[in-house]
Amino acid sequence: MSVSFNPIGPWPVVALASIGVAWLTIWAYRQRMRHTLGRWRWLALGLRLTAVLMCVLAALRPSVIVSEKKTQPATIVVLLDATASMNIGDEQGGKTRLGRALETLKQARPPAEKLKPGLDVKFFRFGDGLAEQTAEGAFTADGKRTALGDMLIEAVDRQAGVRVAELVVLGDGANNAGLAPLDAAKRLKARQVPVVTVGFGSESAGAASKDLAIRDFSAGPTGFVKNRMQVRGTLVARGFANQTVDVELFVEGRTDPVATTKVKIPDGAQLVPITGLAYTPATPGERRLMLRVKPRPGELVESNNEMSTFVNVLSGGLNVLYLKGPDFSWDRKFLFRSIASSPDIQAYEIEVRKPASGATGELADDEFATGRYNVYLLDNLPAAMLTARQQRLLTDAVEKGAGLIMLGGRASFGAGGWAATDLARVLPVNIHPGDGQYEPESGVLFLPNTSGLENYVLRIAPTTAETARIWKTLPRMTGINRFGSPKPNAFVLGTADTPDGEPVMVGMETGLGRVLAFAGETWPWVRAIQEDGRVAHRKFWRQVIFWLAHKENQGDASVKIGLDKRRLTTGERLLVSIAARDAKGAPLSDVSYEASVARQGPDARPERIDVFAQGDDAAANYTAGPASGVYQVVVKATRAGQPIGEDKARFLVYQDDRELENPAADLSLLRQIAETSGGTTIAPELLAKHFRELTGRQFTDTFSQTEKRLWDNWPFFLIFAAVLMLEWILRKRNGWV
After folding, report:
1. Least confident of 122-131, 404-413, 426-435
2. CA–CA dist 678, 194 (Å, integer)
C-alpha cells in the first residue's frame, strides 16, 4: 500500500495559497474576537482551521494505492490447419501434412491434458471456419482458402474472459485470404498472447508440379447489342514455361466458343494477362460468359481451369418486324399504329404477297439473322411465304433470344401450314393442319385467367379487379383459331368464353427467347365506343413487345436492380441497388419492396432479404452461403398495395480454390509470426516435450492495483460540512456573527 498526491496545480502555488488562506483565517478571527474571552473562541478557530486544512487536502488530491494478487483462469489454445493444402503428401514417407500433424497432436495430447486443472488446453481446427477438434473427431481437410490471420484472432476472441497463456499453431504457413498474419501477430503481442508455431510440409513442394488456372475475369458488366465487348482475364500458370495454351470464351446457350486466343507463357512468369478476346452480343438480355483454358497433361487440378460471370446486354431501342400475309386484315392498321407509337419501339412492316419458290422468296435471309430484330410478329402469314431456310433462321433467332408472336387468321398456325415447319417446335401449342377456326355468330370474348390477370402482358390497369373489369367490357372477337394442347412448359394466359374454354393466348420460353400464340385478332378492341378499348389495345401491344424482348420492366413505371458484383466467393457480401421510376424517369415514392435470393435448381428455395432505404432509392444486402452455384435475386415492387413491376438478376457464388495454386509450405511465415508475437517455433517432434515443460509454470497469477481517493467520497464531504456547521453554531451562540 502506498500514498500518492495529484495536486490541482504546481506544488509551490498550492503551498502559497494554503499558507495565505490559513493566515487570512487567523487574522480575521483575531480582529473579530479581539474583545472576547473564553475557551469557545479557540474551539471555533480550531474548527475553521480544520475546514481550511480539509480544503488544502482536497487540493492535494491524495490517494491510497492498494496492490492485490489475483488468480484468474488461463488456457492454452491449439489451432490445427485443416485447409486443402494440408492434404499434400510431401512429408517423410509420403505422408500428408495433415497426417503428420495429427500424429503430432496425438503424441502431445497426454502431456497437455496433465496441465489441468491449473491450465486448461483447448483444441480447434480451421478451414473455412473455426471448429472444435476432439481426439476422436474425424474430419476432412477441405477448406478452400486459408485466412490464417483471421483464425489467430478468432481463436483468442473465443476465450472471452479467460487469459490465453499461449496459442499453438500447427500448419504449413499457407495464407491467401483475410487479415495479414503478421498484423494479427502484432495484435496478439499487444494482448500478451505469444504464438508457438509448428510447421509441416516442404518449402520446395510443387516446384515441379504443373497447373493452369483462371484467376480473374472481367467483361462488361453491361454492353450493348452489336457493340464489341472486350473480355480480359488473368491466367495463373505453373510448370508450362515457354509454352502456348488455348483460351476460349463461351456464351450461355452455345456449345461452341464465340472467341478463342492463344496465350504464350513467358519463362519465370506465373501471372499472365489474357487479352485478344471479344464478344459482340446479337440480342439484348442477361448473358452468362465463361472463360476457359484448355487443360494440359500433367495438371495438378483441372477444376480451376474455367471461370464464369454475367453481363447485361442492353438495346438502344426495340426493333420489331411485322410480317403480314396477303389477305386483308383490319389488324394491319391498328396493330402497327399501336406498336409504332411507342418511342421505345422501332417497328418495320413488310407485306409478303407471293409464296417462296424453292430457295427464293420475297424476303431476304438477312431479315432473320440472329440479332437483326428483337421481336417478330406474324399476322395471317402462311408458312409458304418463307423459304425453308428462312423458317430455320427464324426458329434459330428465337432460340437465341428473339421474341415471336403469331396472330390468329385463316392462314395462321395449322391452317397456314406451319405444323410441318421448324417453327412449330418453338410455338407454345401443338398445331395440326386440320385445327380449323371457331367462329360463332356472337363472336368470342377473350377472358384472362387468374394467372393472366397478374401477368405483365395482360395487366392493363393498376389493380387486378380493374384489369378484369376492362377485359370483360371489351368487344368480342369475330373468331379464333383452334389449338391443339399446350406444350408441357407453356402457360395459358387467357381462354374464350366457350363451354370448353378454348385457349386463346398461350406463352412459352424456349431457349433464350419467348413466344406467344394469340388465336384471334385484336382490331375489334380499338373500334369499341368506350375509350377503355383503345387504351387497352395500345397498352396490350406495348406490353406484348416488351415482354417478348425481355423488357417487361420498361413501361409506365419500372423497377430496376443493379448488383455491385456478378461473382462472389462464399461468405462475401453482395449489394443490390433498387430503383423505381415513373414514365418520365423520376423516382417513385411510397414504394414497398420484396426481395429474395434463391440458388437455381430443382430444389430452389427463395430466401427473403431485407430492403432498406438509400436516398431516393433502396438497397439490400445478401451474404453468400457455403453452397456454390448460380443464384438469382428477384425484387418485386408494390405501391398502394398494387404491383408496379419486378426485376431479376443472376450472379455466381463460387468456392475460392486458391489452396493448390502454390503447394509449397511457407515455414518462414510461421517463424515470423512466432517472433513478432513473442513466441517461438518448435519442431513437430518437440511439441509433447514443450507441454511437459509447462508443468508447474504459473500463468494464472496476476497483480492488480486499486486506487482509493481519500478526498473524492461522501464521508469527506460530510465531515467538511459538519465542521463548518459546528463552527457557525458556536459563533451564532456567542454573538460573533
Report:
1. 122-131
2. 5
Q: End of a domain among 265, 293, 314? A: 314
Residue 705: name the closest of 269, 84, 186, 65 by CA.
65
For residue 506, the number of C-alpha atoms closer than 13 Å in the C-beta half-sphere is 27
In the structure grid, which three cell numbers stand for residue 195, read together? Answer: 504464438
Please identify which residue in the block is written with the cell numbers 509433447: 688
The DSSP secondary-structure symbol of 59 reads H
CA distances 649 to 284, 304, 393, 577, 635, Å, are: 14, 25, 29, 11, 9
DSSP assignment of 546-578, as one string? Answer: HHHTT-TT-SSEEEEEEES-SEEETT-EEEEEE
Residue 180 lies in a domain: yes
**pLDDT tens-digit series, residues 324-337:** 998 877 777 788 88
> How far is it, in rounded angstroms, from Cα 313 to Cα 307?
19
Residues 236 and 356 in one domain: no
For residue 193, what pLDDT is reported?
A: 92
Give Cα separations from 609 to 229, 553, 606, 635 (angstroms). 33, 21, 9, 10
Asked if residue 173 and residue 154 are part of one domain, the reply reads: yes
Name the grid cell of 361: 422468296
CA distance 648 to 551: 11
Which amino acid is located at 168 in the chain?
V
Q: Could you tell me the three cell numbers for 53?
A: 486544512
Give the orientation angle of helix 464-473 with respect to helix 531-548, to 10 degrees.
120
Tell me the residue type at 333.
K
Do residue 157 and residue 293 come from a single domain? no
Spell out the alpha helix ranges (H) of 555-681. Answer: 667-677
Distance CA 409, CA 296 (A): 58
C-alpha cell at 394: 427464324
Domain that holds residue 264: 211-314
To the question of pTM greater than 0.70 for the whole model, the response is no
- Tens of pLDDT along 18-34? 888 888 878 877 777 76
User: What does the angle CA 700 – CA 702 – CA 703 come to, to the nearest 5 degrees?
Assistant: 165
Residue 65 shares a structural domain with residue 133: no
Quote helix, strand, coil % in the chain, to nearest 5.
30, 35, 40
Residue 17: closest CA among 50, 52, 48: 52
Q: What is the pLDDT of residue 199?
A: 93
By three-state DSSP, how is residue 517 classified? Answer: strand
Helical residues (DSSP H) of 148-285, grouped into ranges: 148-157, 181-190
Residue 510 lies in a domain: yes
Choose one of 273, 289, 314: the last residue of a domain.
314
Query: Cα separation of 586 and 601, whole Å?
Result: 37
Q: How far apart are CA 214 and CA 67, in angstroms?
A: 62
Kind and range of the H or E element at 347? strand 345-351
Check whether residue 176 and residue 109 sit in a common domain.
Answer: yes
162, 160, 182, 163: which is closest to 173 by C-alpha? 182
Return mean pLDDT, the chain.
Answer: 85
Q: Which carries the bigger pLDDT value, residue 735 or residue 282?
A: 282
How many structural domains compose the chain?
Answer: 5
d(CA 303, CA 296): 12
Indicate the SS3 state at residue 394.
Answer: helix
Query: Is there a contact between 417 and 325 (Cβ–Cβ < 8 Å)?
Result: no
Q: What is the pLDDT of residue 507?
A: 95
- What is d(CA 62, CA 707) in angstroms, rounded to the nearest whole number? 10
Phi and psi based region of residue 574 (left: phi greater than 0; alpha: psi -120 to 50; beta: remaining): beta
Check whether 99 has a pLDDT greater than 60: yes
The candidate with the shortest Cα–Cα distance to 326, out of 391, 271, 379, is: 379
Grid cell listed for 138: 474425424
